[in-house]
Amino acid sequence: MLGNMMFKPLLISSMIEHAGRYHADSLVISKNTDTTITETTWGKVHENSKRFANVLASFGLNFSDRIATIAWNNHRHLESWYAISGSGYVCHTINPRLFPEQLIFIINDASDRVILFDKTFLPLVKAVKPLLKSVEHYICLDAVDEAISQDFPEIKFYDELIAQQNANFDWPELDELSASSLCYTSGTTGNPKGVLYSHRSTVLHSYAISMPDSLNVSARDIMMPVVPMFHVNAWGTPYAAAMVGCTLVLPGPGLDGASLTQMIDQYQVSVALGVPTIWQGLINAAQQAGSKLESLTRNVVGGSACPPAMLKVFKEQFGCETIHAWGMTETSPLGSANQFKAKHQHLSDEEKLQVRLSQGRPPFGVDLRITDEENGTNEVTRDGETTGNLQIQGHWIINNYFGKTESALTSDGWFDTGDIATLNEDGFLKISDRSKDLIKSGGEWISSVDLENLAMGHPKIAMAAVIAATHPKWDERPILIAIKKPDVDLSDTEILDYYADKVAKWQVPDKVIFVDAIPLSGTGKMLKKDLREQFGSVLMDS
Ligand code: AMP
């Protein structure tokens, strides 16, 4: 016997309908590419998304056609997302910091028929245009600009297109399993691969990330996703924001610490999300400006391990709880988030810090396990100590990559993340490394993340990466590549002495190299592959 309850498909359009109806006057504040600010509301975002849906309907596209966006976090980008997915097309967000060859590969691989882009990315779009095979419409997410039109006659302008349409549009009742959006993995090895999300996976993920033990967002929040909309859909926050009806602050291209401090203070942001490098910039800028970031009650750190020193600074200097979260493109992304259980509440500050260092536990809807081999099926004990290969399954986890028929899963249906980790009996996850970043010294594994975290706790170090350098005797040894804080005096022996009482002797890096900059990926992660290419043989040369 089936239950007698109504069936409504889980659709992205229902989230914007909800925000437009029940949170119509809640603000969406957006920094434009020319740094002016636009203040709009969920009501107007909903109306404009329907206008843009009418624009797309006039293009004669087919169900599930891909529409690319190359844009920062701003209100036009947000409106277009809802129009695209709500109408039954696939919203393909593209990272503008990719190499042009990768951009061309991705657009052709996805067979995008339309490209929407911020004006700042016009040179990029023009440069790759001759090599794009499927694109028929180019839309600049801005008001009409005659100078651009003369140079690029087929270009259309978003503001003009929506002004010509009315806001009457009935969102189609799609199958909830239909594709809704597409993100490519960063492709640090080989070509990037597409991850194709569905309406159902997106709605369920939005519920999960909003829950108190995840990001804990509600209609009383003012949320600022600093993580770009092209990085796993800004971790799903633009969807969750519509679902709960919170105020949304979109920082546009202003990702530097000073701009973020200003946005947080001016708009009283209560929760913000980003990668550790972004937070480091914010901390420095807020300290310089003498801001206490008073409205910020919590910030979410993910994308790379959160250095312990950062958790402490946020808590002690800014009164801000840091939620450490883990995920990846293939997992929508939330796989775990760190919130205390009742039994942790009475712990001392130091003990609480230890709990907070973990990447947290999975929300209902995903399941984690650690196996003793990559793509293996043999689970190891959940004792918080036994490391192995982290695998995941659940409602918003990949099944197969875009355009590929073969499964991306193990023989028993789990996705192997490529991360090395432990799980404890409560499911608290601790990532020790990417499997390819682990250092194998004389047969023993050394975690680059542990050594980096320690270095980041040194008062004179601004940023640190630990990589494996080839060694004639031990195969690999750790070396530390560090950026000093401005105007400090720091020697390599000072750092090595600092490590001496914190890790086993054989884990202390063999060498310290000071640099002015560490290469970062388009999503703000340290490019260790590039560092290995540059410094990987320094121990062989000496
Ligand atoms: P991406 O798909 O580009 O977001 O990259 C996902 C990868 O980032 C994961 O497989 C992890 O290696 C890493 N990552 C994400 N969040 C964390 C975290 N909180 N701590 C450590 N590594 C993380």
Automatic annotation (TrEMBL):
Which molecular function terms from Gene Ontology are attached? ligase activity
Residue ranges of the AMP-binding enzyme C-terminal domain?
Answer: 451-525
Q: AMP-dependent synthetase/ligase domain location, by residue?
A: 31-402
Query: What keyword terms does UniProt attach to this protein?
Result: Fatty acid metabolism, Ligase, Lipid metabolism
Gene3D superfamilies, per the entry: 3.30.300.30, N-terminal domain of ligase-like
Q: Which domain of life is it from?
A: Bacteria
Single Gene Ontology BP annotation:
fatty acid metabolic process
Signal peptide interval: none
Which ranges form a coiled coil? Answer: none
In which family does this protein belong, per the annotation? Belongs to the ATP-dependent AMP-binding enzyme family.
Xref: NCBIfam families:
PRK06187.1
Q: Which protein is depicted? A: Long-chain fatty acid--CoA ligase
Organism of provenance: Acinetobacter gandensis
